[in-house]
Amino acid sequence: MTSVASQGAVAPSRPQAPAAAKTPGKRPYHNGNNKGKPAKFRKKQQKAPKLNEGSHEEVLMHDIQALLAATKLAAGEAEALARELAKPALPLQGSEIEVEVIEMSSTGDGLAKQKGSDQIYVVPFSVPGDTVKVKVYRHLEREGYTVADFIAVTKPSPLRNDSRIQCKYFAQCSGCQFQMLDYAEQLKLKKNIVVKAYRNFSQLPRELVPDVLDTIGSPLEYGYRTKLTPHFDGPPGAMRRGPRKPLEERPPIGFTPKTTRKVLDIEDCPIATDAVRKGLKEERERMETEFVKYTRGATILLRESTQRVPKTACGSGAAAVDEAEIAAAAAATTPASSSAITVETDTYTDRKTYITDNNATSTEYIDDFIFTNPAGSFFQNNNSILSPFTEYIRQHIMPPPHLLEGKKPIRKLIDAYSGSGLFTITQASLFPGGSIGIDIADKSIEFARTNATLNGLKEEQCRFIAADAPELFKSVAQYDPDETVVVLDPPRKGCDASFLRQLLEYGPRRVVYVSCNVHTQARDVGVLVRGEVDGMEGGGEEGTRYEIESIRGFDFFPQTGHVEGVAVLNRVEL
To answer: What is the pTM for the complete model shown?
Structure first.
């Protein structure tokens, strides 16, 4: 039976006017002089500043402000003032105009101008150098930009090659932005997204931020995504009170287009794996007859799961795992289809199926490591890049030799936000003092412990504990910070102030920060380098607590504007 999962591959909300930027700093001094005064005479109490959210709108606004500033600088002060005074009226909403795309924003949208105007137009599915016809959707006059809908390319950029596009829904579905671009160009754009993230969100002087390294590409540019969550809407009036009526016909099943909130009916998705694409086809066929069972909309989970059958004796893997345990893990998988996509190698056969039940168990392999997860839970959705990605972490999780001279050896790993144990397990062999994974979710810890067993790791090598954020580092107080590396892989919102404060107080020798949102990563790394959050200070001669060794992007989602970030930091010795 199809179940409801969290929505994936949906359009980002149209840009809204962002709130004023808030930056981390010291808590304002307050001497209590408001006590006893009438309300109208009391001074406003200032709250401690919140960390920047790194939202779509905030990221976009940074790029727009930079482009506006560059335009004024290029024109000169006098000319810029004259152009501002002679500013033409903006085109009517709903009108069609032609604009030239100047640059690519960090949200994956083009930033364009109309001839004779400095107004910025945000245009999806465009690349620098394109001239495109757009439909004006909404003016945000105070912010100085307009949101526009893409209609057509009237003069293509040298960067554009539409023969590269492999999806017939491209420029309608919001899931991909870059299919018209050469892959090397996509990687350059994603490197620049990381560069701008640290420029706009870290609040660090440039000399404290090393050059961003080239983005590591995905081995698969299409056919890589192991999870899709297409959805459909309920019948008209389903939100009203009263008895719910079932659907009268099979609804559109797919994703939200860029230009409307209605679901775009999608038959196929070429960035998904073959097993997931098969699942999309079969679920659409199932809905041809079963739509009458639904009185409201739902999201369909399509998650790939792998059953691996060795062709030779087990024993070449990470820990010569018991075949019976692997078979038991595979048996726990509940495929939605009896047929499978078969992948043959010299040493094993992989049978890949898809799962639609959130509570079923999916199985995934990274090299010789096996991971089981609740099918509806989070796990990286591009298996093809996980081998080079975890190998990169393995090569950089330890300090370089010159930082080890005369120091205690690194013996322990703390994997914060550990989930089902990706880093705790794949890096465990490097740490003679053991690796420990910490997560707030009991279910994640349960699966992480199972995964450690499946990979032949004993408790003294690899263990997991559930801990709430305020108690996180109390649970590992026995770990000497001079001998410890901390790996962070938080959700998109990044680390909160409480966590960062605890991390600074604990002070591990080395930090490896992995993030699916390079903007909140840059914000948090800035906090760690300054050694200050909510007024708590620490650090060395320059007032810093950590220094950045390296920053690099990984392309987990080719054809899209998304980039994963890895930052490596070392503690500044006092």
So the answer is: 0.85
Contact criterion met (CB below 8 Å) for 442 and 450: no
Helical ranges in 202-322 per DSSP H:
274-290
Q: Does 206 map to a domain? A: yes
Cα atoms in the 13 Å half-sphere on the side-chain side of 462:
26
Q: What is the DSSP letter of 299?
A: E
- Token couple for 347: 């040493």
Of 167, 176, 269, 516, catalytic: 516
User: What is the distance between the alpha carbons of residues 298 and 279, in angstroms, rounded to a whole number?
Assistant: 16
Question: Is residue 169 part of an annotated ligand binding site?
Answer: no
Spatial strand order in the sheet of 264-265: 264-265, 254-255, 231-232, 298-299
- With beta carbons less than 8 A apart as the criterion, state whether 494 and 521 touch: yes
Model confidence pLDDT, tens digit, residues 340-359: 999 999 999 999 999 999 99
Count of CB atoms situated within 10 Å of the CB of 408:
11
Which two three-digit tokens encode residue 442? Answer: 């009991």
pLDDT tens-digit map of 14-60: 444 444 444 343 333 333 344 444 444 343 433 434 557 788 889 99
Please check whether residue 285 lies inside any domain of the structure.
Answer: yes
Alpha helices in 308-366, H assignment, sequence order: 323-332
| Count of Cβ atoms closer than 10 Å to residue 47 Cβ | 9
Range of the domain at 292: 227-374
Q: Is 322 annotated as a binding residue?
A: no
Query: How many domains does the structure of the chain reveal?
Result: 3
Report DSSP state, residue 504: H
Q: Say yes or no: 438 and 551 in one domain.
A: yes
Distances (CA, A) of 31 to 28, 45, 129, 337: 10, 11, 57, 67
Say whether 516 is catalytic.
yes
- Do the beta carbons of residue 127 and residue 157 sit within 8 Å? yes
417 is in an annotated binding site: yes
Q: How far apart are CA 172 and CA 331, in angstroms?
A: 40
Residue 305 tokens read as: 């799961």
**Collapsing DSSP states into helix, strand and coil, what is residue 350?**
strand
> What distance in Å separates the CA atoms of residue 129 and residue 343, rounded to the nearest whole number?
42
Asked if residue 392 belongs to a known ligand binding site, the reply is no
Both 540 and 460 in one domain: the answer is yes
